């Protein structure tokens, strides 16, 4: 691999979609016309150099400001959908989203603290603040330098050597979340952590306890979204990282197998399911501790509580012996994600019943609505809801197969 202009330009065309490639060219033209510079950076460039299509498009703007970013968004027909106090922006253009960060220097006032932005800077200075050499390269997008690579820390050489290496000795001290990222990247990319970096990782790993639970949660979610999540979690477990953070997460063979076969589904909140899988075997005290440590919101808390309640319910009731209406009544109060979590830990018969509820029973609707029941002579009040539920349960159990049978049933109820 070399960093010639021609070679990298060809890689861009190969590993970016035509729409994204044309968009970046257009961005580069506009930025150069405004006397600034624009670079493709970080994991985006790393993945292209590894002959992969990047998941995200990360850009760094040098000699620019928020006003220029706003003008750029208008120029490319997009809109800024996010901006932060760290001079980072997200621009959406049709179906594409690009992340832009103004080049900056950072100072960490104490280990684990969020950085303070001290000044805007050159691309070399900006790359120095990053985590690992393989993520600290930049490719110019302006026409006069298009495709040329800035690689001040020999990141391309580390890609060739398949190794993760920190840029400076205080990297893990400045930001201990980089310890989690080092493990994540090494396993995702199948790279080794170089000797000195591993030594510094072990030296500063206790500093992980200094970062906020919110930041730990964000890193944990990134980990469990990885295809190799079980290997990453096992490595963190072996390094006793969870113990340092104070999370009693038990990574065992059963958990690993479930994590490996987990498949993302658009209709559910996958992060809830994955956290629920990780905490399934814990007692309620440890689960409460995790929700507090990671600042989990009410949705997570309800999901984890529901998971434990369903788990207890399934230990005391043979779900495969229940009729459909009983299954519906038993599971309807709980979040779908909690039911899915339990399905992973259940035997085939029980799992089939849980999936029957999720895929069919929960979508059933009563054969008659409130207005129709009123038209049959019922009086307004809570009894209407009771009749609707009774009709639904009979429908689930096959006792009512059509609307006429439902009308007959309502008349019987009203005349009784």
Plain-language structure description:
By secondary structure, the chain is α+β, with helices and mostly antiparallel strands. The protein has 22 helices and eleven strands. The protein has a seven-stranded mixed sheet with strand order 3-4-5-2-1-8-9. Strands 6-7 form a two-stranded antiparallel sheet. Strands 10-11 form a two-stranded parallel ribbon. Strand 6 and strand 7 form a beta hairpin. Helix 14 crosses helix 18, helix 16 crosses helix 18 and helix 17 packs across helix 21. The N and C termini lie far apart (84 Å). The mean pLDDT is 90.
Label this structure with key terms:
seven-stranded mixed β-sheet, alpha+beta, 3 domains, Beta Polymerase, domain 2
CATH level 1 name of the largest domain: Alpha Beta
Unreliable stretches: none
The CATH homologous superfamily name of the largest domain equals Beta Polymerase, domain 2
In what range is the share of β-strand residues?
5-15%
Question: Could you estimate the helical fraction of the residues in percent?
Answer: 40-55%
User: Could you give the distance between the termini?
Assistant: 84 Å
**CATH fold label of the largest domain:** Beta Polymerase, domain 2
Counting structural domains, the number is: 3
Number of helices: 22
